[in-house]
Design goal:
alpha/beta, Rossmann fold, seven-stranded mixed beta sheet, three-stranded antiparallel beta sheet
Length: 375
């Protein structure tokens, strides 16, 4: 690892990564209290908690968000409690972290903090059995330096754990640059020819797809968020066994990147990324959105899906419910799609698409989509 990382101020790319984590943590915390499960949060590369300028790292973000959650939701959630596991291979980091946690934690006994200074794999193996328990909900953050620790095999082990969401950081640039070496090529089983065929700006997107393929038949959702720092591409890969987890992560991503919901830079080279407008309307199209609309139209034409099936299709394509609704509104206005209300047996009200977890969690479809167009 970079031993001097915490001795400097976090750079902008690190702040983006931590912002994604904080926002997802805020989305995740309200889901499980009062549901009879033990809430556990793991930070396997916890560090000392702060950088040289006092900016909070992932470990202290967890402590701060738990404190905020308890203060603002103690009435709604009567049994707010969490088990938090902090690990770092550096004993000196853990000593500093314990001190920092004591300074900002709420002081109540509802949250239990555990500390260890072990190699990642050793700490993970220690906790895997508990993570697999059916009466626990886990959020795992793995902010590794580079690529060494979190491999497709590790993600596969996590995917087998009940109610476990993961966010891990990986340097896609390093994999792209050194894939022909045994040290890296042996871990990721990606051919150098395959990487050469990919545009460098989307390398993290491709790497996420590689992790997805390695999961085989496991029912586990993955999604990427790419981060650019200078000429290097890094990123977060998110994983969840539940469609709600994917929805919440994509909601965070689209709040940060309103063009593609996927990066802190212009990942596809769109001329209109960032809000710029051209006199030529065809240049104002975001490539990812344009491809999504075509895929969406074909999916509706071929399968005539209900809102539950279409909701999952949109999320798997990387589109949050709110962004999917925008695309569907445009398609409906152009007359490309029709929406039929199943419960009332008549055309649905305009813009009534019933996407999002609150509309699909009952497993009772509300509408069916059809189209007479094919592309």
């Amino acid at each position: 690892m970079n031993k001097k990382f915490y001795e400097k101020k976090f750079d902008d790319a690190t702040q983006v990564k931590l912002d994604v984590f904080r926002r997802y943590l805020q989305e995740w915390l309200p889901v499980f209290p009062n549901k009879g499960v033990e809430v556990s949060i793991y930070d396997f590369f916890a560090g000392p908690g702060k950088d040289a300028a006092g900016n909070l790292g992932s470990s202290l973000i967890i402590v701060e968000e738990l404190k905020q959650f308890c203060e603002h939701h103690s009435v709604t959630y009567s049994n707010v409690s969490a088990r938090v596991v902090f690990n770092d291979i550096e004993e000196k980091h853990i000593k500093k972290l314990k001190k920092h946690v004591c300074e900002i934690a709420c002081g109540k006994a509802c949250c239990k903090f555990e500390y260890s200074a072990k190699p990642f794999r050793e700490s993970l193996e220690q906790h895997l059995m508990q993570m697999r328990a059916h009466d626990t909900a886990n959020l795992v953050f793995m902010d590794q330096f580079g690529i060494k620790e979190v491999t497709p095999e590790v993600v596969g082990e996590m995917a087998k754990c009940s109610r476990t969401d993961i966010l891990f950081f990986i340097s896609s640039s390093i994999i792209n640059r050194f894939i022909e070496t045994q040290e890296i090529g042996g871990k990721f089983d990606i051919s150098s020819e395959a990487l050469k065929d990919k545009e460098y700006t989307v390398i993290h997107r491709y790497l996420c797809e590689h992790f997805r393929e390695k999961l085989g038949g496991l029912s586990y959702y993955l999604a990427p968020f790419s981060i650019k720092k200078g000429g290097n591409i890094y990123g977060i890969i998110f994983g969840s066994g539940h469609i709600l987890g994917l929805e919440k992560f994509l909601t965070v991503c689209w709040s940060l990147d309103k063009a593609t919901g996927e990066a802190n830079y212009n990942i596809d080279g769109d001329l209109s990324w960032g809000g710029q407008k051209s006199l030529f309307e065809e240049l104002n199209t975001i490539r990812k959105v344009d491809l999504f609309e075509k895929d969406l139209l074909n999916f509706i034409h071929d399968y005539k899906p209900d809102n539950i099936a279409l909701n999952e299709f949109c999320l798997q394509k990387g589109f949050s419910p709110s962004r999917s609704n925008e695309v569907l509104r445009g398609m409906q206005s152009k007359g490309s799609i029709k929406v039929w209300d199943i419960t009332k047996d008549k055309p649905a009200r305009k813009n009534s698409f019933y996407l999002g977890w609150n509309n699909v969690k009952t497993a009772s479809p509300r509408v069916i989509y059809t189209t007479e167009r094919a592309t």
